[in-house]
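Quick one, tokens below. Sequence please?
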């Protein structure tokens, strides 16, 4: 039976990337019944919002979506569609595997790190007070009453909530992912030595949950030391579970270890619903040029296949991508030895090369 999936082309380079991905996914032989819905800056004028209710309803009904990147317009008052989707759908787990493929331009080989980022709490919860506003001054006055250390008047304030429940569900999710995928080690990444009541709580919950997974080695890492460890010895790291802000930053770092944003896939997963999308944004300067690399989006499609229980197809797809990258001929500019290599192919032609491998 065909899988009914909400397909959101997005904006900027999103439509060309999702189209390449749709064609590759169909070439695996898995049946899809795409429910195409719009979101992003291109629908804002006609729908009055970058996230129409019908798009959200479609994801809620289908439970799975494949989404192209969406631009966050600056200074229009609209908050990020990407953040809104994660909040509205309770997609608390952000999965970002970063794996080396032979042939990708990178300083490293043998990297195979899986980032599990908490998606709803922390400094990204969206609780902020603008410097100089009445609300900010009120919050500052209340906080100053409770402690010796005083916050300067006129400060801007961002709040970092981290709950036991929020921590437990993401940490448990990371360990279960590790167990299911035969992973050996889960690292908890915090700055618990400084932020004892937020990161400290996250770490405390990690220690408790780790006891339920005795076959997996728990590691405790401070985020600053982790940055050095990742660039010096990335092969030592396996699954990493992180609060929201560190997860955002470290997943770009690990994308850099394996060849950049063009090859970094992702999925946002919650109870019963999942939205798969690349780590990168809409790269608007390349819009409509059939130029950017769809690998990240295609590998996000591979994660979606796994999520749908289509493991064999997922493996075949990954192999086809790996083969095309290793051969290094029909690949996009960013995967060539130099960025102005005239033999680079476009987004669509690279997808054709993968489709040919799948058919072979
Ligand atoms: P970006 O990821 O769009 O682009 C940064 C640079 O990375 C690009 O200039 C390009 O050189 C490179 N790049 C990105 N994707 C690539 C690809 N597939 N192939 C080759 N090179 C690629 O980041 P940005 O410029 O900071 O953001 C642009 C817009 O995207 C912003 O509005 C931002 O808010 C939004 N954004 C959306 C998402 C999402 O939809 N989940 C994620 C991040 C950023």
């Amino acid at each position: 039976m065909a899988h009914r999936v909400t397909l959101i082309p997005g904006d900027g380079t999103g439509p060309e990337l999702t189209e390449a991905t749709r064609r590759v996914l169909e070439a695996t032989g898995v049946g899809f019944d795409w429910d195409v819905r719009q979101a992003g800056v291109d629908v804002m004028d006609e729908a009055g919002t970058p996230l129409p209710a019908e798009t959200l309803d479609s994801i809620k009904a289908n439970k799975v979506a494949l989404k192209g990147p969406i631009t966050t317009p600056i200074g229009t008052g609209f908050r990020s569609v990407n953040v809104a989707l994660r909040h509205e759908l309770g997609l608390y787990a952000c999965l970002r595997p970063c794996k080396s493929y032979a042939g990708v331009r990178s300083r490293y080989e043998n990297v195979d790190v899986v980032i599990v980022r908490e998606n709803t709490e922390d400094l990204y919860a969206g609780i902020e007070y603008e410097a100089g506003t009445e609300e900010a001054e009120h919050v500052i006055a209340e906080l100053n009453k409770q402690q010796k250390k005083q916050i300067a008047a006129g400060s801007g304030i961002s709040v970092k909530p981290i709950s036991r429940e929020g921590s437990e569900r993401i940490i448990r999710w990371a360990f279960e992912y590790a167990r299911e995928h035969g992973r050996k080690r889960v690292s908890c990444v915090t700055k618990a030595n400084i932020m004892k009541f937020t990161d400290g709580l996250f770490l405390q919950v990690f220690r408790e949950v780790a006891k339920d997974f005795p076959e997996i080695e728990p590691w405790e890492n401070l985020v600053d030391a982790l940055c050095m460890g990742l660039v010096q010895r990335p092969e030592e790291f396996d699954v990493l579970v992180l609060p929201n802000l560190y997860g955002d930053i470290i997943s770009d770092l690990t994308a850099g270890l394996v060849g950049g944003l063009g090859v970094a896939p992702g999925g946002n997963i919650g109870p019963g619903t999942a939205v798969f999308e690349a780590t990168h944004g809409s790269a608007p300067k390349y819009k409509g040029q059939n130029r950017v690399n769809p690998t990240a989006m295609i590998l996000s499609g591979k994660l979606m296949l796994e999520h749908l229980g289509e493991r064999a197809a997922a493996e075949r797809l990954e192999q086809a991508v790996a083969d095309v990258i290793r051969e290094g001929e029909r690949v996009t500019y960013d995967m060539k030895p130099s960025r102005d290599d005239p033999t680079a192919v476009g987004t669509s032609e690279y997808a054709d090369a993968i489709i040919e491998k799948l058919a072979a």
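The chain has a mean pLDDT of 95. The chain has three domains: 1-94+266-360, 107-121+162-257, 125-161.
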